[in-house]
Amino acid sequence: MIEIENVRKSFGPLEVLKGINLTVAKGEVLTVIGGSGSGKSTLLTCINGLEPIDSGRILVDGIEVHARTTDLNKLRQKIGIVFQQWNAFPHLTVLENVMLAQVKVLKRSKAEAEAEAVRQLNHVGLGDKLKVYPSKLSGGQQQRMAIARALAMSPDYMLLDEVTSALDPQLVGEVLDTLRMLASEGMTMICVTHEMKFAREVSDRVAFFHKGVMAEIAPPEELFGAPKDPELQKFLAATH
Amino acid sequence: MFDTALTTNDLIFLAKGAGMTLIVTAISVFFGTILGIIFGVIRYQIGPWWAAPLTFVLDIFRSIPLLIQLVLANAFVTTVLGFRVSGFAVACGVLSLYTAAYCAEIVRGGIEAVPQTLRRAARSLGMTWGQDMTSIVLPLATRVALPSWIGLALGVMKDSALVYIVQVVELLKSTQILITRLQEPLFLLMICGLFYFLISFPIARFGSYLEKRWSND
Ligand SMILES: Nc1ncnc2c1ncn2[C@@H]1O[C@H](COP(=O)(O)OP(=O)(O)OP(=O)(O)O)[C@@H](O)[C@H]1O
Ligand SMILES: [Mg+2]
After folding, report:
1. Between helices B171-182 and B8-50, what is the axis angle to 10°?
2. Closest CB from A86, A104, A149 relative to B115
3. Which residues pair with A3 in a beta bridge?
4. pLDDT grade, residue A197 (50/70/90)?
5. In percent, how much of chain B has pLDDT > 90?
6. Which residues 54-83 of chain A have a CB within 8 Å of chain B?
7. What one-character-per-residue DSSP string does A150-193 give?
8. Which of A127, A230, B50, B213 has its CA 20 to 30 A from that of A6?
9. How many A/B residue pairs have CB atoms within 8 Å?
């Protein structure tokens, strides 16, 4: 379970998260939508402790992320995160990309790591690209590789930050299919996305962020069908 | 072909000078690079503000002509501190710091060229700072920094000619000694240049070899 309690976060004078309260249960798929600069990415990077927070707290399975005593490297093993772009380590092959952290962090043997990497890469449909360098992959393939790399760590949570927004339209589908598959397998996920159709389809709940505030959160039928927040209404009108 | 007074012994004398150039360069580049990596990482890690004193000291080494550094360091160590050290040691010490000063900049630039997002990706996978540094930053920064580093190594080799001022007889000094004796400056300088070339060429080739090998990814 991820519990976010009254989290505030500023970059200098700019308050990016203005008291966020949110709980994501095991197995839940939450999608986060909202305008540019509303604090969606920042929230994800706070959840795995890449960014410090100013007040409030975030608990992952009861462990306070920003507590001084928390071993962040250990906690991050539970939380897979895939960013918008620039995810692939360019000096490693696809296979090595997926093996690296398994060997370094989980201390798996090379053979174990390779077997798991191959399994995950097959899972996302990259089984034939093992020895290829990322520069030879399309953007969609790179994103799927990043997803496989995160999954190979056997995380309990996946945080996905607009993993399709840097892609050409024809590549979006393949990545979304991968995410749908994950959702159907019961992975706990927080997906920041601009794909409204996708959000409607896979989410248990959808959260709308506006200027650092979570203005509305509801199951997709409700949030898209009968939006209450005026900013959300504007946002949805603009994206249709 | 040439009517020259150059004997085999003279050639050996020159080769010894070349050997000295090579040794001084190798030692200085080796220690200078290690120090440069340490300084470069520190500079990057603590940010420009806190690193200002270090940057200032390194700037001194970069901006004062090497000849002056050698003379002053020699005087300082032997006269002021009263140590009995050889010119060779002073030469290696000064050249190492000189190399380190340049190398620190190259290292910092190399590290800065590694996209922050890649480092976040590494840390997100649970990798520690050290694992990120060795598995991601080091290999990627090396690729960026290699051409400048090769340039630095070759530059240091040529600059090492100045260590004659602290009584180290390296290649150029050996050549000068022979020129004074044999009065055949052009011929001797050609041979001297050939020696420099023989030392530099493998380094330059090795650099392009690595660049080529890395360009597949
Ligand atoms: N490291 C940083 N330093 C300073 N400001 C930052 C930093 N990261 C984000 N910001 C600012 O914080 C605000 C929120 O950024 P964030 O990336 O969380 O928005 P977002 O909702 O993900 O937007 P987008 O849809 O464009 O990705 C933005 O105004 C951004 O400029
Ligand atoms: Mg974002």
Report:
1. 140
2. A86
3. A23, A59
4. confident
5. 69
6. 73-74, 76-77, 79-81, 83
7. HHTT--SEEEEESTTTTS-HHHHHHHHHHHHHHHHTT-EEEEE-
8. A230
9. 68
Q: CB B126 to CB A153 under 8 A?
A: yes
Sign of CA dihedral A48, A51, A52, A55: negative
CA-A12 nearest atom, ligand 1: 4
pTM of the predicted structure, to 2 decimals: 0.83
Confidence of residue B216 (pLDDT cuts 50, 70, 90): low
CATH number for the domain that contains residue B211? 1.10.3720.10
Q: What does the pLDDT average to over B171-187?
A: 91
How is the beta sheet containing A205-210 ordered, strand by strand? A79-82, A157-161, A188-192, A29-34, A205-210, A213-218
Q: Is the CB of A41 under 6 A from ligand 1?
A: yes
Residue B1 counted as domain residue = no
The answer to whether residue B49 is domain-embedded is yes
Name all domains of chain A by residue range, CATH numbers in brackets: 2-88+158-239 (3.40.50.300)
Does B25 map to a domain? yes
- Report residue B2's pLDDT band, with 50, 70 and 90 as the boundaries: low
Query: In this predicted model, what pLDDT tens digit does every residue of A66-113 receive, in sequence order?
Result: 999 999 999 999 999 998 877 899 999 999 999 999 999 999 999 999
Quick check: helix, strand or coil at residue B144? Answer: helix
Structural domains counted in chain B: 1
Does any CB of chain B come closer than 8 Å to the CB of residue A19? no
Q: State which H helix or E strand residue A141 sits in.
A: helix A139-151
Other Cβ atoms closer than 10 A to B90: 25
Contact B117 A87 (CB under 8 A): yes
Phi/psi at A32 (5° precision): -120, 125
Domain that holds residue B16: 8-215
B2 is a domain residue: no
